User: What shape does this take?
Amino acid sequence: MFRLSLSTFRERWQLFLGSLVTVGIGVALVQSSLLILITAASFEAPSGMPALARARLQESYVTAISLVGITLALAVFLTVFIVSSTFAFTVAQRRRDLALLRLTGGSRRQLRRLLLSEATLLGLVGTALGIPFGLLVMQWQSGLLVSFGFLPAGFSPQWQGWILAVSVGVGLGVALAGVLVSSRRAGRVRPLDALRGAGGATRVLTPSRWFFGVLFLAGAIAMMIIAKVAGPSAAIPLTMLVALAAAVGLSALSPLVVPVFARVLGLLLRTRPVGTVAAANLRDGVRRSAATAAPLIVLVGILAGLFGTALSITEASERALRRDTAADFVATTPVRDANRIAEVPGVATTSVEVAVPLVLTLPEHDEDESGTALGHARVIDPAAYRRAHSVQAVSGSLDGLRGHTVAVGAGRSGEPGFSLGDTLHVRIGDRELNLPIVAVLPGQVSGGPDLLLPSGITPEPVLTSTTAQTVVSTATGADRAAVGDRIRASVHGTVDSAEKWVQQRAEAEQSTQLSIFTIIAGMAGLYALFAVINAVVIAAADRRAEFAAARLSGLTRGQVVRMAVLESATVTATGVLLGGVAAAGTLLGIRGALQRATGFGVVELPWPAVGALVTGAFLVVGLTSLWTARSATRRNPISLVGAD
Assistant: This one.
């Protein structure tokens, strides 16, 4: 069977090249993410490093581990999805060849062995290409993490010898899994039906496709409902899963939609021969159209959904911050200057909030172990803080924040070990303290300080080395502009209007959110885009005789090329529309979560980016279709029909 598989490769290499490359890229993405993840997870801070510096370094690695872990999971999902759909499409394109093999005496078992042998060869060769390519991807991915500040400068992923076995397992596993179901289905189709293109050979919406399509769509709806009632920390990963599940479900059921678009195209261009033939081809080639639309659905669903989620979170956070902050100005100054702001003429109230970095000792799941983490605290006056911020403790009261006590802020609210009555072990400077929790504030989508501390427990050297944020309200009737000028003249630092401060916070948060989603979805989007191109190339490779027959029936070469481009544009519209439906599910889920968490159920989309994505999809698919159609029609049509 391997000899026959090699012969098939030599004869139809164009058909297998795309499958080979998809396996290689998938192996590279998984290998890169796994090596970065293992290197970051095994990091140990140098001995003798100060506790605070050690905690800062560990925090950056913890954040990177979470991001790379999500990226790895997404890479595995896309590899399985894209390779499986590509292999299934490749097997479907060869149904006539496989039928001839059956008619010449081949059994169903031999047919499956042939396809599995081909998949094994593709998996091995794709892995051999993916391993060195994965090293290049790893350097690019780690450089991206460093440039966005999620990993420290100088980070270098370490090669692990065992990764070779993992890469081979991934390459072979996805290749064999991708062809297994298709080989069983190909073996069940009667040879004469496959040759005539009738019976079971033409059925696109198989029972398994119905099952998985409905299953994933039901899962997407269920997760969307859960996301609406979940907390902010759980809603964000759930909405990403909504995008993936909806994209898979809609991809499986896309053959229901393709004929609808074909009918619309036929009605719009019913007087044009090219349009009429293109509509007929779409109705006849539903499997081909669905295979091309599938990666487009994933591409649009993931990118539009995730980046829309980032902007929606930022918009809701900005509105909530503007609503909950009672101030005219916010000053960022040294601590010694902050205390003088209250004496400026025209100032009614101030809330001085001193940023204090500290080290938290956190209980792990194992009772015999403990870990440390960087904590971000603010030293406040409880009464002034409540005047400046519309915040109500979910348990306890800020009235008890005095002496050696602590309140849990939005950054840690709801986490295990941070409940009312628990005791936290913290290190501030060179001082170690055990502080009972007297209040727990509600969590926020935009986060916030981990802890709130009363004055008097922070060492003086820490206070002199940090900055204070002072929330200022002016007196009734005072000239706000003049008061602002007097504050600026009396302190060192920045004094911004409350509106400008809110906007700056929102811009910083948006930048962080977009960086996170760029790392998660960037390479995944490129992989899906390549899969779209690959599907167009595979489809055109098997249509040479069809194009030749169209030319012999009276169409010119230019008309045949325009027909192929028109078909691809219709399929692109189908993929973009269904991808938009998947993204809409994501945004509806995050909208409900934001409404519950902030009181603002907003949906924001990066319309310029969405427009660029849609335009890019039409351009890439259109240009690829143009190139492949011109290549397929270069030879004399009589020779192609005769060869077929």
Remarks:
- The mean pLDDT is 82.
